[in-house]
Design a protein that fits this description.
Keywords: Membrane, RNA-binding, Transmembrane, Transmembrane helix. It comes from Arabidopsis suecica (Swedish thale-cress). This is RNA-binding domain superfamily. The protein is of the alpha+beta class. The protein folds into three domains: about 100 residues, Alpha-Beta Plaits, CATH 3.30.70.330; about 100 residues, RRM (RNA recognition motif) domain (Alpha-Beta Plaits); about 40 residues. The protein is about 35% helix and about 25% strand. The chain is built from nine helices and 13 strands. The strands form four sheets. The chain has a five-stranded antiparallel β-sheet. α1 runs antiparallel to α5. The protein is globular.
Length: about 260
Amino acid sequence: MDEFVNKGLELNGSDAADIPKSGSVCRISVEGYDTSVHAFDVELTLRKHFSSCGEVKNVNVPEDFVRGILKRCAYICIVGECALEKALQLSGSDVRGWTISVQASPFHRPMCIDPGRALVAVAYLSRQEYRMMVTGYDTSLPELDIQIGLCKHFSTCGEVTGVLIPGDRRTGGLNSKALVTVVGEGAAEKARELSGCDVKGWDITVVGVTDLGAKRNRSSSCTYIFALILGNKLLNLSLVWWFLFRSFFTYEVESSR
């Protein structure tokens, strides 16, 4: 099974002057959602809510790693005619009982370091994370609706961090097997217990489970933490060069002994 990758744009601020004049692409900031809800759940909800404004290219829901909750502001990139105007009209609308606030957001900002992410890097290595292959959903439905349904179904097992539904080259539609990534103690066993349950008329079945935590722990901890930090853009280029120089210098000293 291919590894699920959930990418996000890191944006900040709210200056409409930074939005391109074409009117076909925009980035917005959204506040008002429940910060105690898991990030992927909020991401799917916001994707659904703003889908009427155009093609939602990216949703970034930052996390406050120190407090263990979400940050209060999410960032969304939308492509479509008059996308910004349509998105701003949704400010004050109700989403799952949340009253959201929408503002224009700039395209550029200086890269910043989130010290909280480094604090949880070691804990990330030991967390129980599983990727499950599931089947039984209705492939004729929109991909986003299936993702929301599977996320809600497996949320009782732990934190759902991703739902990937590949395309089917033969039919041109969606594949009948999806990959659901869940974090939590005993998540795999809980998911197997849900296998065969009826979900909106779907007979969801778990056909395979991969223990990502076990695979991760077999890798070098230092290498993984370094890659994790780089992947999340927590270090600027000067710090990266410092890390590489220090590693090389340490190696030379050890080799000369």
